[in-house]
Amino acid sequence: MSRTQRLVGPLRGLLVAVFAALVATQVVVLPAAFARMADDSPELAALRWPLLALAVVGLVCVEAVIVCTWRLLTMVRDDRIFSDHALAWVNGIVAAVAVAWVLVLAAFVLLVAAEGLAGLAPLLLLVLLVGAAVGLLVVVLRALLRQATELRTDLDGVI
User: Fold this and answer.
1) Where are the transmembrane segments (predicted)?
2) What is the DSSP string of 99-115?
3) Residue 96's closest CA among 50, 145, 131?
4) What is the reported pTM?
């Protein structure tokens, strides 16, 4: 068993823990946090539900990335990662990152319109920059996977 295959199990355990934490956050933490925000800042009360919806859907995007990663880990474990099927899961990750980035952008615009560049707006700007970097990194990794898949297909054809 290779070192990479030995790491699949612990990584899956971490993914389960993160997924459970995200679900708990969606169900318990976010509704309470946005309710408190509406109580503490009545001028932002109108943003409670739109921001809650954006946050919940954003976390669904992260959960989608976890599911796609789980499927890719299965392909790594079974030594089937260099296939067109793997590219479909990577495309799912790219799509989820893109949707999440657009949602964060929408939240940023809503907050800047409501209170200017104070409060959470600078943090959301940082998340936008990091999200753009992550999205571009995944696109580059997808291109590398595509090249490796083509090389493996060519090599299998020669053998």
Assistant:
1) 12-35, 47-74, 86-114, 120-145
2) HHHHHHHHHHHHHHHHH
3) 131
4) 0.86
